[in-house]
Design brief:
By secondary structure, the chain is an alpha+beta fold. It has 2 helices and 3 strands. The protein is 22% helix and 17% strand.
């Protein structure tokens, strides 16, 4: 097992089981680009290890994962557009779709 320290995940190996804990409790473990990068960095090399039987991915504290970290996706200038924008939702708006709808007039 690597000695690499990560900021957004904790990795623990016990025999043939690797447990990865998502560790961004302040944002309900929202999946940031940093977290996803660390997850890939930690798991891809271990996936080739014949001594590993399974991976367990769990969340810390109150949530497994809140979904994508939309603070990384939203451009800071979207609310500064001159033309009015309106939301016409006739289907489900979930996750980042709700955020996009809330940005509209």
């Amino acid at each position: 097992m690597t000695d690499t320290q990560y900021r957004t995940i904790h990795v623990n190996r016990a025999d043939r089981v690797v447990t990865v804990t998502l560790n961004r409790p302040d944002v309900l473990n929202a999946l940031s680009s940093e977290l996803m990068s660390e997850l890939n960095h930690a798991l891809l090399p271990l996936d080739r290890d014949p001594g590993i039987g399974c991976f367990v991915i769990t969340g810390s504290e109150r949530a497994f994962a809140a979904g994508a970290d939309i603070t990384e996706m939203a451009p800071k200038t979207a609310t500064q557009m001159a033309a009015e924008d309106h939301f016409a939702g006739f289907r489900y708006a979930l996750g980042g779709g709700c955020e996009l709808a809330m940005m509209c007039s």
